[in-house]
Structures are given as C-alpha cells and as structure tokens.
Amino acid sequence: MDGTLFCVFPGVQSQRLVQSLDPVVIKPGTSHKLPCQGFDYNFSGYWMGWVRETSDGRLTWISNIDPSESSTYYQDSVKGRFTTSRDNSNNMAYLQMNNMKPEDTAKYYCARDTLIQDNKQPHTITQSH
C-alpha cells in the first residue's frame, strides 16, 4: 500500500512526498533501502532529509542531502551505516540502512528542507500536544 505524506511548514506551501506505508520487519545486522518520491515542486532544487519517529513519539533528524549530492550529513548514531542518496531525474530520494540495530526501530519519514543552510547540524524535533 502506497500513501502520501504531506509535509506542512508554517508559511510554506505544502509539497507532496510519497513513500510506502507498509511496515517492514528487519533482523539486526541486515539492510534495507527506503524510497521516497517527490511531486509538485522542483525536486532538484531542494535539500532532502530523513527523520525518524520512535515508539515514544520522539522525532529525530537523521540525515540530509544537498541538491547536487555533493554534501550529506548524518546523525552520529547512523554515521557509517546509513547512506542518503537521490535521483533528481526521477524525483527520488533514498535512505540505505545497513547493519541495522534494535535501536533503529522507528517510523521513517522523508522531508524536503525549506531552507538551504551552509552548516547543517543534527537536531531533534519535538512534537507539541
């Protein structure tokens, strides 16, 4: 089953990103690749990122990739195991996850960055209730 994830940012028009909603069960030490397709905007002009949501509802940034694929940034816990890539000609972004660990259990979301920053630093996004 495919679904649509709408990313809404205050003051910014929503952009549509499509990724699978089917749960995936992966054994520790194995690999999995997550795809994400962008629609309705100039995909190749924006940074793309990946965020994960743990069972307690905490959202944590895990990686970013610039439009030309020349710069990628990763949260320390996934460095050397996860790789972010993109295919601008097909409006696709990917998250290759290798050597999976139990603490990688989460819901994963792709997101388009709204701003290009010179120095991307890992950050945590907290939900307001």
Structure write-up:
This is Ig-like domain-containing protein. Pfam families: V-set. Keywords: Adaptive immunity, Immunity, Immunoglobulin. By secondary structure, the protein is mostly beta strands. It has a single domain, classed as Immunoglobulins (Immunoglobulin-like). Helix content is 0%, strand content 47%. The chain is built from no helices and ten strands. The strands form two sheets. It has a five-stranded antiparallel beta sheet, with no helix packed on it. Strands 4, 5, 6, 9 and 10 form a five-stranded antiparallel beta sheet that branches. β5 and β6 form a beta hairpin. The chain is globular and about 35 Å long.
How many domains, in number, for the residues? 1
Secondary structural class: mainly beta
End-to-end separation in angstroms reads 29 Å
Output the radius of gyration: 14 Å
> Which ranges are low-confidence, i.e. pLDDT below 50, for 5 or more consecutive residues?
1-17, 116-129
* Total of helices: 0
Give the number of DSSP strands: 10
Taken as a percent bin, the fraction of beta residues is over 45%
Question: Which of globular, elongated, flat, extended, rod-shaped describes the shape?
Answer: globular
Pattern of helices and strands: EEEEEEEEEE
CATH structural architecture = Sandwich
Strand order of the largest sheet: 1-2-3-8-7
What is the CATH domain class? Mainly Beta
Task: Output mean pLDDT.
Answer: 76
Largest sheet: 5 strands, antiparallel
Q: Quick one: CATH superfamily?
A: Immunoglobulins
Named CATH topology = Immunoglobulin-like
Q: In percent, how helical is the residue content?
A: under 10%
Protein name: Ig-like domain-containing protein
GO cellular component, one term: immunoglobulin complex
Pfam families: V-set
Domain Ig-like: 10-126
